[in-house]
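Why show two proteins at once? Because comparison is the fastest way to build intuition. When a single record is shown, students tend to memorize it. When two are placed side by side, the eye starts asking what differs. So, the first record is below.
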Amino acid sequence: MSAQEPDWVAALLDRRRFDWVPVGSGESGDFVYRRADGHAFAKLAPAARSAELAGERDRIAWLYGRGVACPEVLDWRAADEGACLVMTAMQGVPAVALSGGDLLATWPAITQQLSVLHALPARSCPFDRGLSRMFARAVDVVARGAVNADFLPEAERDMPAPALLARVEAELPARLLQEAADRVVCHGDPCLPNIMVDPASLRCTGLIDLGRLGTADRYADLALLLANAGEAWASSAQEAQACAILFETLGIGAPDRDRLAFYLRLDPLTWG
């Protein structure tokens, strides 16, 4: 046990059968461990976030076996102080670790994995991540003054959060109509750190961090994937090629740039 590891974390980890190596902890306060044999990860959340971790557990359990490569739930433990989710490890490295050239080479496999996810019957998915729910979350985050400026584009970091929210609200009626016509099962946070790739074969091995999975406008996923990957491309030509591959794979025609921009404005307001 490390000096900074809380007692409740030590109590929930199954150290009788396995050794666990700390990977780190994020801003959320979760603790992440890799099993020493490399075949599993444990994510532990304090009591205040136990319900969210249980939601991630339920989403992984629902998605597993539906044709999308993702972890499998191995164990769940809960106590008054927190909870522990143990899941299989996805092989490979996060796509964020790839060079622009390698990312472009694996991009068709990444977009195909997203396509399989989006093709799942939305009516069969019990998880809602729709625009009404996410806007309500944004309203709460802004009201609490909890917007994380680091998630905002640099040009918007000095803008008052209520002004950012009002800009999103002005487009809400039109975007709700679009969502109703194109609602799919979304990952919710399909950024490169959440996409695993075999660095040797450049095969996409799966999707991780599924705590935001739910039905929504597919553009909520597309906006985040394109924006995050935009930081990796070595040239504007690579970026344009990746965008073309994504929309061709999904078979949805030319990108709606205004719709992409809308979801990029909404998403940073939902993380507080």
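Second record. Ask yourself what differs from the first in the token line.
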Amino acid sequence: MTKMSKPLSSRWLVWLFFLSGMAAIIYQIAWQRVLFTSFGVNIESVTIIVSVFMFGLGVGSLLGGQLSKKYFDTLPHIFLILEIVIGAFGLISMPLIKWVTLGTLHMPLLVLPLVIFGILAVPTMAMGATLPILVAYLHRKTHLVGQSVSTLYSMNTLGSALSCFLTVIVLFRFLNLSTTILFAALINFTVGYLVFRYMRELKKAGAAP
């Protein structure tokens, strides 16, 4: 096994998707807590926040499917960009959410979904787009679409499950909300760097990304 064989393996990206899933759940839990301080903790706000988050993931998944067809030859590049976008939003998310919610604090409850979606549209759609992007890429490498979907989804779910315990038991116990979100952003930037390294090693080896 050569020194470069590990980053050259497309299976390496599966573990990066595991980390991406961890970051996504940290964001969801932390952003919910921030929004709860503005809109209160009741069944209406909980339902709206979770629904908007899932709606963004669903729209992002559809968008990712279209991108995977249109930019089939640059899928790792798109995944890299998505991770950087998510991490960059994470850096500004706390002051942005507080600023927007302060301006809409006394608006009717019916406006709440639009406000939350307006805040979280970009990161949640970027998160949702990562799965179809990587599925298309691994399918191109392995020609096994079922295996690609099941492997990525299971690893992302495993990362999300682990992240629930990590966030509540460890991060919220020792870090404040701002630092917790910065930790998630660091995960995204780390994933982005490792994808960049993966593409660079492919280029050195003369292989197609």
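One difference worth noting in the second protein: DSSP finds seven helices and no strands in the chain.
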